[in-house]
Amino acid sequence: MTIIAEVPAPTHIVFGTDGWRAKVADEYTFENVRRCAHGVARYVVDRGEQARGVVVAYDRRFASEDFAAAAAEVLLAHDISVAFAARAVPTQMSSFEVVERGAAAGVVITASHNPWTDNGFKVKSPTGAAAGPEILATLEATIATNGGTAIPRRPFADAEAAGLVERFDPYPGYERFVRRTLDLDALKAADVRILVEPMWGAGAGWISRLLEGGRIRVDEIHRERNPYFGGVNPEPIRPNIDEALGIIASGGYDLGLLLDGDADRAGAADERGVFIHQLEAFGLLMYYMLEHRGMRQDVVKSVNTTSMAERLGEFYGVAVHETPVGFKYVGPRMIETDAMMGGEESGGYGFGMHLPERDGIYADLMLLDLFLREREAGRWPASRAIAHLHEIAGGSFYQRLDIHVDRGGYAAFKDRLKTALTERAPAGFGGHPFTRTQVLTTGDGMKWRVDDGSWLLVRWSGTEPLVRVYTESTSQELADAAIAVGEALVRGA
Predict the structure, then answer these.
(1) 132, 237, 333, 377: which has the fewest C-beta neighbours closer than 10 Å?
(2) Is the pLDDT of residue 190 over 90?
(3) CB neighbours of 109 closer than 8 A, spacing ≥ 6?
């Protein structure tokens, strides 16, 4: 019997909170990568900025360098010169190169912290920030019309021989750039021992190299390329980083510094191997800039990030702005408000004096600097400095539950959940009634607050087929109650 396969319609490509991501060989194909690159090419050509060129970079995922070359070939066919990463690099290095070169845009082949089966396509604006909604709307409009059409491309080797491709190594320039705002020599001179966990990703070797040659002792695990990421999602949260936490807990380390698969997200652990969750890290970085660096500019945070930001803002007299989830909202708002920092729950933090984009390497170095300054102030080890933060900013018992949904039924599930959030929402959690209900401005979820400042948020992802339930509460018991309420609501849909 002969089976005639139905010819699938062109993939409907939509950029979520941070680019477009999909499963390799399913929707993530060379054809669809070329369609995305065609959208970027048309954006650059329509603005008459071909001469400014586009930066193209990639991570350590399966065939990322080949997908990057395919994207470059489309740009080259539109007479756009390309600066192409000489090897896999952290995502923020493309942001740095875009700014340094004055490029028209940046393209990064990465799926960040997604499962190893996925890959993705990120776009950077000329400011180095993640492309905002306006740029992405333009790209999506082009992509919606180019499915099934022949997209022009120029062979990569031919273009490189003609001098239209420049291979770049961002490390020397990035080190100089970091030294503008961080005293690397002081960090190198510190008599401490740290463990670095890059999770087999593109950030491997970067922190070790930036800190080499001094008194500080840096051990690093999982430096080799492994597109399988050891069988875990390369997101620096538990349980993915439990091996690193166990090594630290065994003794001899003062701090752990963590990175995600493309190194634009940061994480940390104290001297006991206790994970410093993402909301605590945001609070620590904000405290560091206010207390130790004396800065008083605005702060930007996503809706699923810590309420400690507001309390610190009130304590130090600094305005705090809230955005939807995703750095495509945080970055532009940072530029608009001249903010000193911005961040999101996922562990992505950006800094006005550095880049208006997430940089896990820079954030980890700033956390190291914070703890060393706290040591000078008599608050050591790291766990003591964290306790001091909570004395000022209040408690932060954070939990997040990821509920995965079948990819094929995801759209229908979101419709059911949207109805459940409005028609079957609970009245409160842990004996506390809701005092405020907030529909997310992007229409992808809802947030509730109770009288003591604790909150619960339910939101479906724009990049993966999953729903996330978040809470930040004033006690562990209240956090457990909030997560249970949110999980029941989602599973009931």
Answers:
(1) 377
(2) yes
(3) 33, 56, 57, 58, 59, 61, 64, 65, 67, 68, 71, 119, 120, 121, 122
